[in-house]
């Protein structure tokens, strides 16, 4: 970064009123009992305020159960909600170009915003879109009965995959294979409706897990499918063989759980949102080819943190069930921070095109490599190089009192304990920051 950047102390914010109100609110925030610690971030010629507090908490602000789709490295719904409430209005477009299970778009829809989202994995769209059109319990039950009849016609599996039998009882696998073939066929015939899509979403989420609420024998959590070899070892160690699980009963139960928190106004909000919602399977550095320019009021997003999470490995069973070739998904998995920063700059350039003047980007990252790499430093740089204006850094820290020196090395070893968010804004004018 060899340009001369503006300094917050000397250059007034672009729209003083709302930005100043946000700074004031963050500085005075004490909703969960702690006062905000205000620090400063310095990078070359740039200084940014850093606000550290517990800004949202899972306990005190219950999220809607509609979010309860497990996904590796997803954030809590309270995170996008914090920014949606403050930095957008009903009817505004809210985008997440790395949407994963869709925490941002689902929360945006529930808050009466228009949800837009992208992800390079085709799984993401299948996890998000059906939740804008939840079917009734009766519709799910009737459809499952119809599919179940197809299973009855098939008494045993023709050729059971030995790798899958490590996870599933043969009869469970038969039901699962019939369901899978039914869904794939419906899709290729162009007949997959919102009830099928909902069932596919729920089943995808029940493939593996710890409890009897999943189709598999005891294994890792549902967002992390192990390899068949690893599962063989788990089975041997635990002296377990896959028990029969009622695929259709499990789907019905989880389906009800997902919908149980939906009030009438939520159904109306989802209905309104789906008319204008847009979800694309695309790499985030190509997003501008899919969405209309200068339309987005707010982006709330969280990219892959270098190579911390192996999304392709974790999702192999989900991809199998959905008929997706996991090896063909060009997932970012950067080892070098320089490559990661270049990718993020390319993403920010796309976001800049998509944002309305004065639109916002809340870009969440974690500490990686045991705190040795603070990705927010690189995010600031990527945003500035793309021509966005960094406004502040917000650190949501639930274990606040135990980590007094949280701006230095903290207790955060996996990079996901605290949320570290760089907030940017698109300048209303076309002036480049370097011209200031
Ligand atoms: C940290 S997760 C986002 C989780 C999301 N915030 C949620 O709550 O579910 C990062 C996501 O980036 C996606 N991804 C990886 N490479 C990508 C790329 N080049 N473009 C878009 N998405 C990508 C992964 O599939 C994963 O869903």
Characterise the protein shown here.
The structure is a single chain. This protein is of the alpha/beta class and 436 residues long. The chain has two domains: 16-122 and 263-312 and 330-435, Rossmann fold (3-Layer(aba) Sandwich), CATH 3.40.50.150; 135-259, no CATH class. It contains 15 helices and eleven strands. The longest helix is centred in the middle third of the chain and has 19 residues, at 170-188. It is globular. S-adenosylmethionine binds at residues 71, 73-75, 97-101, 103, 119-121, 124, 283-284, 302-304, 311, 331-332.
Write the layout of secondary structure elements.
Layout: H1 16-28, E1 37-43, E2 46-53, H2 78-87, E3 93-96, H3 103-110, E4 114-119, H4 122-128, H5 137-152, H6 162-165, H7 170-188, H8 194-205, H9 228-238, H10 247-259, H11 264-276, E5 278-281, E6 296-301, H12 311-314, H13 316-322, H14 337-354, E7 355-365, E8 367-368, E9 373-374, H15 375-385, E10 389-396, E11 419-425
Helix pairs in contact: 2-3, 5-7, 5-8, 5-10, 8-10, 14-15
Bound molecules: S-adenosylmethionine.
